[in-house]
TrEMBL record:
Tagged with keyword Zinc: no
Keyword annotations: DNA-binding, Transcription, Transcription regulation
Domain HTH gntR-type: 8-76
Protein name: GntR family transcriptional regulator
InterPro entries named among the record's database cross-references: Bact_HTH_transcr_reg (IPR050679), Tscrpt_reg_HTH_GntR (IPR000524), UTRA (IPR011663)
Transcription is among the record's keywords: yes
Amino acid sequence: MIDKNSPIPVYYQLKEDVKSKISQGVWAVGQCIDSERELVETYGVSRMTIRQALGELVQEGLLVREKGKGTFVCEPKVKQKNMMSFSEIIARSGMKLKTKVLEFEIMEDIEELKDVFNSEKIYRINRMRVVNGENIANEVVYIPCEYLEVKDKSVLEGSLYKILEGKGYTIVNSETSIQSVIMNEEYSKLFEVEKSVPLLKTYSKNMTEQDKVIFIEEAVYRSDKYVLEVNISSRGEGKLK
């Protein structure tokens, strides 16, 4: 299982083998994996190597350590790294996605959106994203009617990105603010949970290559099920906002 003569670091080989066992169901979600001592005997490597491999898997959210109990397999999370529709993220992860359209209406002369959109009529679309049977994300989208002609709201159960691309609008950039929010009674009902779970709220302006804002999205995610990875670079004129 481990080739010590390979140019690939031993800890990385071990890490990949543990990931493979998890994906194959050798260790199921919620199950405690072998102890460090057992892994040392199985793989014939040092305890330091074991700890490095497991430490990275903990950072990646595949494992969780519980003091005095052991290391357990985590439930897989929805992970977003770059500009990609939620539908595409779920499709790539192999999970099952269902989208519920909670509200759909046309709003007129919205004062707070006039600085963003030069449009008199704007769609407000409220959708719940259900992944593997659980409510994971609530998205409220504001988009001018001229960008998205909707004759049947069932079309909104799919990817808005793909609908917009079909009309010649490709989203390549997003200005997003992120904050944590506290679970309250409203969110508890919305996500259909009785226990308190961590939530992540985002507000984003989604734009074309010409910096034309196509839609605004206000979203709330269960951050115990969703991970948003942000890459920050100091190259060029990039700024932190």
